[in-house]
Design goal:
about 220 residues; five-stranded mixed sheet
């Protein structure tokens, strides 16, 4: 949904949400452009609807990007521009939570940037990053790419690096992480900031250890360890 303030990151499981994923011309959230956006709507933990479209970035797609996502110039020449695709995506998501992998530092920055450029408003939905959840729930793992998590949970990785396939994979991973978060063993080692809803991390300061919000510096909540 469009609003005046960007949505906030939350570290939790919810039953109603939209998983989304972008494919882009590169990794710069300042200079690169979206070439595919896909989403899967989930209600009560069950997939109810999907959304997917290629996007014409109005520029050539670099070969290095095509090597990863297998999207080429001829595939997007008749596709809608991102202003149209993002408007359709906004209608699709409503006010639901957004879920994605590494979206805090990547995907959200693209949709915030472009919504603000197009309309002077932003995407205001709160969001959940499965990368943050996985690091908290599965500290024994050494790598946290989406395909690593899918393999850990024996979820198929067929079609990885195309947006809709990644959404389906991530939805299954998120449900598994939700199960992890409900276990007593994980909950005993998990603390959530009462002010902003992100995980607290144990830190060391001048006077010893303390719990500090992982959302610092935006959130400066602390409590004694």
């Amino acid at each position: 949904m469009l609003g005046d303030k960007r949505g906030r990151k939350q570290d939790k499981y919810v039953k109603d949400y939209v998983v989304f994923d972008l494919e882009t011309t590169g990794i710069s959230t300042v200079n690169d452009a979206v070439i595919e956006i896909s989403a899967v709507k989930v209600q009560g933990g069950k997939v109810t609807e999907t959304f997917s479209t290629l996007v014409n970035p109005k520029r050539p797609i670099p070969p290095r990007a095509s090597q990863v996502n297998h999207i080429y110039d001829d595939m997007v020449k008749e596709a809608p521009v991102f202003e149209k695709a993002l408007a359709d995506f906004d209608s699709f998501i409503g006010d639901l939570f957004l879920v994605g992998h590494n979206i805090h530092t990547f995907d959200m920055k693209f949709i915030w940037r472009d919504a603000e450029n197009y309309w002077g408003r932003t995407i205001a939905n709160n969001y959940i990053d499965t990368l943050s959840l996985a690091r908290q729930c599965l500290p024994q793992m050494s790598h946290y790419k989406l395909v690593d998590l899918a393999s850990y949970y024996h979820i198929s990785t067929d079609g990885a690096h195309r947006a809709l396939a990644d959404c389906g994979m991530n939805q299954k991973v998120f449900e598994k992480l939700g199960e992890e978060m409900s276990s007593l063993e994980v909950m005993e080692n998990m603390k959530v900031c009462p002010k902003c809803g992100q995980f607290l991390k144990k830190r060391s300061g001048r006077f010893g250890e303390f719990w500090g919000c992982s959302g610092y510096p935006a959130c400066r909540y602390t409590e004694n360890a």
